[in-house]
Amino acid sequence: MNRKNQKTGKKAGRLSSAGHPLHVHLARLSDALRLPFLMASLLPAMAAGAYAWQKGSFDAVDFVLASLAVLLAHAGTNLSNDYYDYQAGNYPQKKNGPTGGSFAIQQGHYRPAQILGLAVLCFMASLAFFLYLSWSTASLVFPLGLAGILLGFFYTAPPLKFGYRLLGEITTFAGMGPLLFATVYLAAAGALPDEAGWLLSIFLGVLVLNVLLAAQVPDIEIDRLSRKRTISVHWGADALANVYGLGSLMAGLALAGGVLLHGLPPVLLLGLAGLYFSYKAYMELKAERPLAALGLSLTALQAGAGIVILALLLSVTFV
Question: Model pTM?
Fold first, then answer.
């Protein structure tokens, strides 16, 4: 850690010990956890539960526990990424918008060690839930959950540092899409998803990945300076926009294929409406307006996943 980081860390230690009202502590904790972005794991988890419900094999308690486990794993990932990005100097001088991490350390709200400690607590709690679910439902739940946690932790943690080695995008897609979906579905239904379920998980994984892709563009310069190799750094913002567009097309084909070839309820095709916002985001990326693209990508995730969840539930209710 460089001298500047050391000074910031000492300042953080002094400020974090100061007395503040409870609501201030809760607000700072919410910022550190990046709570609004946890919907990127909550929505795929809810979709997995809805699919288990639609298939007629659903345990509500195990679904809730599995969802809590993936939310804790996601929170731990956010915290550990903040810690290791801070150690690498991978953050802007001034917080500007939703990108660049939580800035909980830089603003003096927490010491670096506190952020890492919170990450470990989240990961341990997540593992405890996965261990219980492995005993109560299917033994494969624990290794799947552990794999997800390792992907999240080593996204920025050495020695693997997936996000720094042009592997962050595929890691995010796999971890927040097929792996997360399969883990929650297995816990709720007691079996792995069928072919249609895997295609549905691809649709969801791409929507989550698109949020990451849009968020990369404002961070190109700081990522380049800290030697973080992302698609936007390695090939440029225009190439990233093309990857975004091709991924969105793949997501639409996966959902349509699940309906047309593998028996997903036809009403799920309404989920393609979410890709309208992905198209708008793609156009914003081409126009070099990444923050607008990020907002539209979040809307695409909410709309696409939300419609899929509702459609799965209604397909059971009205059959």
Answer: 0.91
